[in-house]
Amino acid sequence: DITYAGSRNKVYHVTQDLRELLPEECPDLRWRTCAIVGNSGTLMFGKFGAEIDKHDMIYRFNQAPTDAFSEQVGSRTTFESLNAKFAHELQAEDPDWLWRDPRASYIFFEPLKLKEAYTEIRRRHKGVQTYMFSPAFAYTEIR
């Protein structure tokens, strides 16, 4: 095991299975413009879809639907963050899972809580691009 001294003085063990799935280097992903789209119902009061879809990168959260609401929220998704609830739905192959077309890349927002789910999802869905937030980054950003 590789030990990571993470947030709040906890020690987490990264198993060799998980270690083998992690990239050697952090991907260098950059875009000229981005839209970060929440999943609030208040988006339904406007027609922001065309403006959102103009961006190079579009980041969404937790399976917020787009198909029936593209005029309001756009139709494109580059990245979608998944909290524990949605990561476990993907892991369980929930029949109601909203696969994006084209496929979005998934970012696991609670990486240490989801390390087993992440490992299983990576093995089960080889064609799906997945990332994990660094625990140090996630902790710093929510403090």
Q: Quaternary status of these chains?
A: single chain
Look at the structure and give the CATH class. Alpha Beta
Please identify which CATH superfamily we are dealing with. Answer: Glycosyl transferase family 29
* Proportion of residues in extended strands: 15-25%
Mean pLDDT: 82
Portion in helices: 25-40%
Briefly note the structural class of the backbone.
alpha/beta
Structure overview:
The structure is a single chain. The chain is an alpha/beta fold. The chain has a single domain (31-142), classed as sialyltransferase cstii, chain A (Alpha-Beta Complex), CATH 3.90.1480.20. It is built from 6 helices and 7 strands, in the order ββαβαβαβαβαβα. Strands 3-4-5-6-7 form a 5-stranded parallel β-sheet. Strands 1-2 form a two-stranded antiparallel sheet. One of its GO terms (cellular component) is Golgi membrane. It is a single-pass type II membrane protein.
Features of the shown structure:
sialyltransferase cstii, chain A; 143 residues; 6 helices; 7 strands; two-stranded antiparallel ribbon; alpha/beta; disordered N terminus
Nutshell version of this structure?
The chain is an alpha/beta fold and 143 residues long. It has helices spanning 16-21, 49-53, 70-73, 84-91, 115-124, 135-142, and strands at 2-5, 11-14, 34-37, 57-61, 79-82, 105-108, 130-132.
Secondary structure blueprint with pairings:
Blueprint: E1 2-5, E2 11-14, H1 16-21, E3 34-37, H2 49-53, E4 57-61, H3 70-73, E5 79-82, H4 84-91, E6 105-108, H5 115-124, E7 130-132, H6 135-142
Parallel strand pairs: 3-4, 4-5, 5-6, 6-7
Antiparallel strand pairs: 1-2
Helix pairs in contact: 4-5
